[in-house]
Every structure is written in structure tokens, then in C-alpha cells.
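Section handout 9: paired folding examples.
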Amino acid sequence: MDLEKSHERPDWRNEKLGSRIRVALWLLEVIGEGNTFTKEQLHDAFPGITTIDRRLRELREDGWVIDSDRTLSHLGASEMLLTRAGEPIWEPGRVQLRRFKRFSAPQLRQKVLERDSYSCVHCGLSSVEGPTEAPVNVVLELAHVVPLAAGGSDDLDNLITLCANCHRLLSSGVQLPDVDSVWHLVQGLSPQDQARLLAWIAMDRKPPTQAEKAWSLYRRLRPEQRTSVAHRLGQAVLDRTDADSSD
């Protein structure tokens, strides 16, 4: 996309445009690819629009790569980085309008999340593992198996659940491993781990273990509640150790 041809794009200050389109134009005109911005700058640019944070997040569904402290550790809590601009959603006739409608349908989203057990089908991250303050639709996102641009459809079987990080990596064109390197790693697994991997392949997802579920829920407790669980666990381990020693 040629960022120099700004005169060919609408003015982001035009209030007749939708707020999602205005945010995209603002990012290109004011921020620019490769530059950081803050939530305060976003809110100052769009005063009175209470849903502006949501409109910004929705741009990721159109191929916009917008990083935060959840995906890049060096960013501050309120900082974001426009890593890469996505589809020019301000252009008339774009299929992104249909995509926005699809992702706004609660029933379809719910079916995809339920089918995938509210977990990323690539890394297994579940909705309860995200930041405490993050809603599920920020931690988990919907993505196409076959992109719309490549002839993919909006059917349920062409939609999968990804965490924000896996979705970003796939959208950014990160080089994927080759078959031989993956098979070399698989060959080195123990028979038990090979059987476990085969089960995951058959299910097409990696279900979290009970320990991982416990850890995820533990992380969502308040500090004083975490202390209580830690003390109980410590006592349970000591009691079991003492019992084993006495046998």
C-alpha cells in the first residue's frame, strides 16, 4: 500500500464515515506504519465515541497488525504499535463489510468458540489464560482456514479460533516450519508423547491439562486469594511428603 497517496483516501476527520473506517484512516494519516501510539491519543482523536477501542480491535479482522503489550513485551500498558496496515476498508465494494457482519454475529462466533473449546487451535491458549481485565473476544479471535482473498468462505468449517498472538503471526507472514523439521522433532518424542500428539492431531486441538486449567484460574485470583491457595498447596505437599516418609 502506498502511504504517500494520502490525497486518494478520505479525510479521517469526516464524521460521516463509520468510526472503524475513520480509525483506519487516522492510523495511516497521523500515526503511520511502524510507529507507536497510546490509548490517550486514540481517545483524544475521537472524543465522545465510547466504542472506539472496539473499532480499533476490529481492524485486526481486516488484516491490520496492531501490537500491544500483550504481544510485544517492550510496549507500555497503554502503548500500541501499528506494525502493518491491512485492507483499505474505506474503499467501496470491499468484502470487509461482509466480514465485519460475520464477526459481529454472536451465534456464529459462539458456535466456533464452543467447537474449539474456547481455546486457540494452534497453541492451546484458553480464554481464562488471558490478562485478568481482558474480555474473551480480545484473547481469542476468529480466523479463516482459507482466506477470503484466496476463495475461502464464511462457512463454519472455514473458521477457527486463534489467540491474538497466533493470529498476528499468521497474518504477518512469518515463515512456517517445513515437514522434515517437524517430523524430526516428532521422531524424538517418547512413545507416550507421540501417543498424546496423535490424540491432539485426531481432535485437531490441544486440550489444556488439569494443571494448566488450575494455573489459568489461579492467575485470575486476587493477590490475597493466591496466597491462600499457595499456603493450602504447600501444606498439602508437606502432608503428602510426611505420609510417604512414614510408610
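Moving on to protein 2 of 2.
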Amino acid sequence: MQIRFWGTRGSLPVAPHASTITDKVADALLHASGKTFTDKAAALDYARNELEFAVGQGYGGATSCVEVDVGAGAFVVCDMGSGLREYGLDTLRRLSDGNRPKEWHFFLSHLHWDHIMGFPFFVPAFVEGAKVIIHAGHSDAEEALRRQQEEISFPVPFDWLRANIEFHTLETGREYQIGELAVSMIKQNHSHDSYGYRFRDKSGRVAIYSTDAEYKIDRMEEESAMVDFIAGADLVIADTMYSLADSVSMKEDWGHSSNIVAVDMCHEAGARRLALFHHEPTYSDADIQRMHAETIRYEELTRNQSELEVLCSYDGLCVQL
């Protein structure tokens, strides 16, 4: 099972200012002072392997879109954020070998705009004979997708899409077989509700997608259902939009969680890897990198038994389970 991140920001897409790029270039030049590179490949290798991530690369600015790929059968993706456009084009390229069906399964966490805004730009939906199946815990998912393509908001109506599009409303407490994956769902605390997903492949590997969910450090006894849901997972993709200080002060009840709570829950559940996700749109690459380092340190200080590997998701990250 491969997990590919096509969009990792929360709330709205962000693009770097010109000054941000200039700062990165200046920092890289200072770091490389006195070095020479024989060609572009050597310079790229230096940028990727010797510069700190926030300088040589970056976390990206697309909103939530995460692929769960077992390498065969239909494509599976969580949420339709702005990263969906690039994902859709990439899957069309992968179809060229003729070994996979023109079929896409979506699993929606919820219907807020940053999680569905990519669908009008999802090119496979315009392909005759393609099949798009949209799974959600919300019975009003079709209404939400149609509404954002009404004429007042978007020039291309939903009914102009050429794919065969179906909507399936899922229930918690059940396991569904979707191609090569067994999928179950849990309800989460968020405005208009949110749902997390557990994906299990035929070899038993488990990936969790849980975003836009507020879990509070002073109510952990109430979160036992989520701990059970992520138990033993190989990867937990978790909403870590805020620091602990923000999540218990000015941003309490905003529907998002902190990196600290995510580590605590993964420790209790015996998960193997945690991916920080749904990054705050006002955070710079340096801010996100700092939060990642602080989360790693917190995990080390609170670890009781086996290590929880802490990753920080970015647009383009691929994790092999």
C-alpha cells in the first residue's frame, strides 16, 4: 500500500509570495557559499539532501487530497481539495498502460469547501466511460458538489460532467469492501460532522485518514473510540493544524486538533507512524518544520514502549506501507 499526498494544507490553498522564494534562494546561496556544482543534477542533489527541508524544498500549498494506492484495481482517494487537479491528471497518465479500470473511489471527510473545491477541476470526471463513486457519511454530499458548480459560483455545471457519477452514503460501525481494500468509518467532532477512515489491505496493513477532528487533551477518556479505531495502524494521518496552546485557548472548539494530542492518541493506540496533516495556512515552511521538530521531541519524551515515527506530510510525499 502506498499513500501519496497531493494536498496537505487546511482551510484554503496558499501560494508563496515572491519574497518567500527570494528568501529561500538567499538562504540556499549562503549555505552553499564556496561550493560549485558541475550540473543541475548536482545542484538538485545538494538542495534535496544537504539543505534543511524548509529552505531546499517546502510543504506545498494545496488543500486536502490523499491517495491510497495498492497498485491494482480502482483508484482510491480521500477528499477533493485543490490537490485533486494534479492527482486526476497523474491517474490518467497511469491509465495509459491499460492495466487499471477507469474507476475512482472518493472518501470524503466532510463537505467544507477546502475539501471539495478540487472536484470541478478533476479531469477524469469529464471522460466518457469513466466511473466516479463518491463515498461519504453525509447524505447531502451530492447537494454540496452540485451547489459549488451552480452558475453563480462556477461556469461549468455539474451535469456537464461526462463520467458515470454515483453517491454512496456510508454508515459507521460497518466495514465495506472496496476493490482491494476493506474500509470502515468513524464520526468525528467538527462543524456539520466529519468522518475518519480506516483502510486495510489484503496483507493486513492499515492506514488511517483522520482530518478536521477536534480531540481535547482534557477529555481523552471521551476519545477512547478513536483510539480503538486507530489501534495498531501502520500510518495515522491526523489533523494537527494547531499547537497545543492554540487548541486550548483562542482556537478551542474550532474543530481541529494539535500535534500533542495526536502523539498521545497514537501512543495509546500502538500506532507505528504518524503523519502531521492539514497544516495551518498562515504557517510558513519554517513554522511547519519547527512544529515537526517539536513533535518528534515530544514523542521521545513521552514514549513508553515502541517508537512512534513522526512524519510531516507535504505535497508530493509518498509513504510505502
